[in-house]
Amino acid sequence: PPGPYREELPYHLINFLDPRERFSAMDFRERTEEVIRGVDERGNTPVVVGGSRLYILALIQGIFEGPEADEELREKLRNVPGDKLHERLEGVDPESAEKIHPNDTKRVVRALEVYELTGKPISQLKEEAEPLPFRFKKIGLNRPRKDLYRRINGRVDEMMEEGLLEEVNSLVEEGFCPDWGAWNTIGYKELYQHLTGDKKFSEAVEDIKTNTRHLAKYQQNWMEKLDDIQLEEINKLNPAKLREKIVN
């Protein structure tokens, strides 16, 4: 969030990682539990704000701490043709195979890796995971898609004006590469491709807008299917009324 908001309200887990660091959903869950307990002990109500599906599910449904990566096994699995790999998953974990697209090689490989290392399907391990011991009130803010996309495009232009290209350039000068935890952040990779000569500046900016819109569409579709969620149409109430309704 922009500076003025952070000065007005206490934010947590913002600007606390180095771009080189990797930060898993399990890491997020553990750090967030500490923050939630701290806010609660001070007599306040913590509000978790965000749209990342995996990270939100880690809080409200739980996440299992799977085995560490076995690079030798992963490499062996990656050498199997995609259709055969998915067929293998169907044989040992049909529930996961139904949810994971055959082209999503990364998740197929991870599911098979977990099965090979634990002897249990990853779907079973996920069912055994425990949610955090809190009662969550889930509220989703919906906005008409056309308006949402217009705001996303404007926000990207604003980020460029505020120096996103310069930020990415400074990372490149420090050795920015796929090993960094921030590598797949929307905005970073596209501008990296511009700075290394693979894309025109205008193409990189348009790609940031397109990829952000795709992510927002995915997040919105997922949110609308979430159990026990209170959906609010953000364009039907003014901000003060909407805030009052949510707080109540």
Key features of this structure:
mainly alpha
Helix-strand layout with pairing:
Blueprint: H1 3-8, H2 25-41, H3 53-60, H4 71-78, H5 82-92, H6 94-99, H7 105-118, H8 122-128, E1 138-142, H9 145-161, H10 164-173, H11 188-195, H12 201-224, E2 229-233, H13 239-247
Parallel strand pairs: 1-2
Summarize the structure.
Helices cover 58% and strands 4% of the residues. It is built from 13 helices and 2 strands; from the N terminus they run ααααααααβααααβα.
Average pLDDT score: 90
Q: Give the percentage of residues in beta strands.
A: under 5%
Which sequence of SSEs, written as H and E, runs from N to C? HHHHHHHHEHHHHEH
Strand order, largest beta sheet = 1-2
Find the count of extended strands (DSSP E, 2+ residues). Answer: 2
Task: Choose one word for the global shape.
Answer: globular
Label the structural class: mainly alpha
Number of helices, where a helix is a run of at least 4 consecutive DSSP H or I residues: 13
For the biggest sheet, the summary is: 2 strands, parallel
